[in-house]
Write a structure and sequence with these properties.
heterodimer, A: 373 residues, alpha+beta, Cytochrome-c3 Hydrogenase, chain B, three-stranded antiparallel sheet, 8 strands, B: 414 residues, mainly alpha, 2 domains, globular
């Protein structure tokens, strides 16, 4: 018989400046032609020592740094930290402040999911949806700018409430935006989400089973995409979420297997709808009143280790804080959704096409700053 | 015609032919350069419109001269050749690609069927074969770049162009059967000015052939949803990753020139070429205007595809070609043959069928416009309207006017 042709596996360096690794993430992939044999994520290109900074700053002074943990959802990142410190010192946040927090948090969740959906579609070659969704995001930025004066890193929340009250016509503005946005989102769904090419690209790609998702500690939409109905807002309620009515969207194998990329994508879409519902209820329920609880200038939480977790757009953000009765923390550990999502990529990647790997990274919604902190 | 004039003036025939060839080549290449420039601006403006952006509008009126600025920028850039690249092939590839596309312009018409660079009797066959040079050029560029992303892009290009050549050629077959020739001028003259005289509306199988031709051509010209060879988000820039400066400009030139080829072939062979209605036929140059109009309409459809659809995956793209387009093209081919056998002596049926086809098309167009109107209605829901401004809400009593406390304080202070 003829001689065997010598073949070898090709090692390709994907990133840190690859167009679709969403910031600076590096993957070392070994491929046989188009098929990925091995994929090793290399994290740490965007490490800014935020946890260490937390040990040097005062408790209040660390809040602006939490913005930078996840710049696509700064409100939620602020919120996660403030909730943690409030639970340590036992502050009760005024009701109006809680509602404001929920509203800005949900608005920010929508804008973060818009980026996730848009970036996924751009990774798959659909450039128009991304730009159209960024346009909608600008409107949300306008609303958040009315509330706090910033468009990306808000620094809106403070320990014990929120920093500023919203303008008098804010609620009407939000309501008007939601009416516009619901229709715009449907339009966007017809353009990309229900597009047959897009569904074929996403469906049945890299399915994560229920056991795998729990085993790899996936959180948030990635976990729910695998069919697990778990949402901290419902299962471990905080703030005023128990009073609000909303559902937990979860992956049902809409176009293929349960837990495939399309399910993860679709869960985000449905979460946007739920967020709209929540904000509509808040507009009706929001009371007048104080926006800040009285908190001493120099906070000295009791000694001990505290853990607090909230639901941010990329899943559960946990704060593990060790205090030794000083004006700054002894140790702060931030647990983010993107980091655990990265850990499942080497497990899922073998056998995928390079193009599928892009879709997988897009559907996991990995954001570099949250990954490295 | 030009050749005869020259030989009658005493120029040797071989020299006359050479002069003619140089002249045509010069015109074609310059046309490509200018067309590619202009259409790149048009494409960017169209894309901007679709994406709620403004697009290039600084250079010249409405950004019309942007292409000159881009071209000058690209020419002034450093001509980089990566380490370890095959220098000869690396330098050759862009020009081979451009010549593959430019070669197609020889058999393309420009309006009246008498104005064709070289009216070959195997025109369409030549067209299909010469455009396949692009595959070789892409593979050459990819291999010579010494870059793994480029190589992946090149392999995709080779696979793609090989598999889409067949449906494109088969899609042209019904038209060839209707006109009975491969010659472009004959195909053009087989049609009339009215839509029911066009080959595309001749019968359902010709229509199918046209759709296959357009889809396959999109794939061959490497545009979304088939732009896998330079898939930006996957392969950085595919085969063009390592190219810069003038060579990159030539690649872009070839890509845009390809849109004209697709548009012109579609317009000439399926959409009734440049035939003007009898009322207008006395106007000078009307055929050119109609032909260019139809071509640009096809080009706009390609742009529309590109900015609407996401991209296929490589295996899905191959599936699409071999499992769907190839059987469909066989249906178009045999269907056309059977339709021909059945109706060759009954022109009455042919006329009825072509009129029905036009009616059906108008119906589809109406349904489509209805869908478009829904989107317009959705866009009409405004944000940031005057109805939510503070002054208006205070006027209708929805919110209480805010008492400015600082004013009161300053009055009491002294």
């Amino acid at each position: 018989m003829g001689k065997q042709l010598r073949t070898e596996v090709m090692t390709i360096n994907m990133g840190p400046q690859h167009p679709s690794t969403h910031g600076v993430i590096r993957f070392i992939i070994k491929t046989d032609g188009e098929i990925v044999h091995e994929c090793e994520p290399d994290v740490g290109y965007l490490h800014r020592s935020i946890e260490k900074i937390g040990e040097l700053m005062t408790w209040q002074g660390f809040v602006p740094f939490t913005d930078r943990v996840d710049y696509l959802a700064s409100m939620n990142a602020n919120w996660a930290y403030c909730t943690a410190v409030e639970s340590m010192i036992g502050t009760v946040v005024p009701r109006r402040a809680e509602f404001l927090r929920v509203m800005v948090g949900e608005l920010n969740r929508i804008s973060s999911h818009l980026i996730a959906i848009g970036a996924t579609s751009m990774d798959l070659g659909g450039f128009t949806p991304f730009i159209q969704l960024l346009r909608e995001r600008e409107y949300i930025n306008d609303l958040l700018e009315m509330a706090c004066g910033a468009r990306l890193t808000y620094n809106y929340m403070c320990i014990g409430g929120v920093l500023y009250d919203v303008p008098a016509n804010w609620n009407e503005k939000v309501a008007e935006f939601l009416t516009h946005f619901e229709l715009a989102m449907e339009q966007m769904n017809r353009l990309i989400s229900y597009n047959r090419i897009f569904i074929n690209r996403m469906a049945n790609v890299a399915p994560v089973s229920r056991e795998q998702a729990i085993g790899y500690n996936l959180v948030g939409p990635n976990l729910r995409g695998s069919g697990v109905q778990f949402d901290l807002r419902k299962n471990h309620p905080y703030s005023v979420y128990p009073e609000l009515e909303f559902d937990i969207p979860y992956g049902q194998g809409r176009e293929g297997q349960v837990g495939d990329s399309y399910d993860r994508y679709y869960v985000r879409l449905e979460e946007i709808r739920e967020s709209i519902k929540i904000i509509r209820q808040c507009i009706k329920m929001i009371p007048e009143g104080d926006i800040q609880a009285k908190v001493k200038n120099s906070i000295k939480p009791p000694k001990g280790v505290f853990h607090s977790k909230t639901e941010t757009p990329r899943g559960e953000t946990g704060y593990l804080i060790e205090s030794n009765e000083k004006t700054s923390a002894y140790r702060i550990k931030i647990r983010t959704g993107s980091f655990t999502a990265m850990s499942i990529i080497p497990e899922l990647a073998p056998g995928l096409f390079i193009a599928d790997l892009i879709a997988l990274i897009g559907s996991l919604d990995v954001v570099a700053p949250e990954l490295d902190r | 015609m030009l050749i005869e004039t020259m030989t009658s003036l005493g120029v040797p025939e071989l020299l006359a032919q050479f002069i003619y060839a140089v002249l045509i080549a010069f015109l074609c290449v310059n046309f490509i350069a200018i067309y590619a420039g202009v259409v790149s601006v048009v494409e960017r403006r169209v894309a901007a419109k679709m994406q709620s952006r403004v697009g290039p509008n600084r250079v010249g009126p409405q950004g019309a001269l942007q292409w000159l600025a881009d071209g000058i920028k690209l020419i002034l850039k450093e001509d980089l050749i990566p380490n370890g690249a095959d220098k000869f092939l690396f330098k050759l590839a862009p020009f081979l690609m451009a010549s593959g596309v430019a070669g197609a312009f020889i058999v393309l018409p420009w309006g009246p069927s008498s104005v064709i660079g070289a009216d070959l009797n195997v025109g369409l066959l030549y067209l299909i074969s010469v455009t396949a040079l692009v595959a070789i050029a892409t593979l050459m560029a990819a291999w010579a770049s010494n870059n793994k992303w480029s190589l992946l892009g090149g392999m995709r290009a080779a696979a793609m162009i090989v598999s889409y050549e067949i449906p494109v050629a088969m899609g042209l077959l019904p038209a060839i059967m209707i006109a009975g020739s491969l010659q472009v001028s004959v195909l053009m003259d087989a049609q009339g000015w009215a839509p029911w005289d066009w080959i595309v509306f001749n019968n359902p199988f010709a229509m199918l052939g046209f759709l296959l031709f357009v889809t396959g051509s999109v794939a061959e010209s490497n545009r979304t949803p088939f732009d896998l060879t330079e898939a930006e988000s996957e392969l950085v820039a595919g085969y063009a990753t390592e190219y810069s400066g003038f060579r990159f400009a030539v690649f872009t030139l070839a890509e845009f020139a390809n849109t004209w080829v697709v548009g012109a072939v579609g317009a000439a062979i399926f959409l009734g070429a440049g035939h003007a209605p009898p009322i207008l036929s006395s106007l000078p140059g009307i055929e050119v205007v109609i032909f260019v109009g139809k071509t640009m309409f096809m080009v706009l459809i390609l742009m529309w595809f590109r900015w609407t659809l996401p991209r296929f995956r490589i295996d899905q793209m191959m599936d699409f070609s071999w499992k769907y387009m190839l059987p469909l093209s066989l249906i178009a081919f045999f269907g056309q043959a059977i339709y021909f056998l059945g109706t060759w002596d009954q022109p009455g049926i042919q006329i009825v069928v072509s009129h029905l086809m036009v009616l059906a098309f108008l119906g589809l167009l109406f349904l489509f416009l209805n869908r478009v109107m829904i989107n317009f209605k959705h866009q009409a829901v405004v944000v940031n309207s005057p109805q939510t401004e503070l002054a208006y809400l205070e006027k209708i009593g929805k919110i209480k006017p805010k008492v400015v406390e600082s004013d009161v304080a300053t009055e009491e202070a002294p």
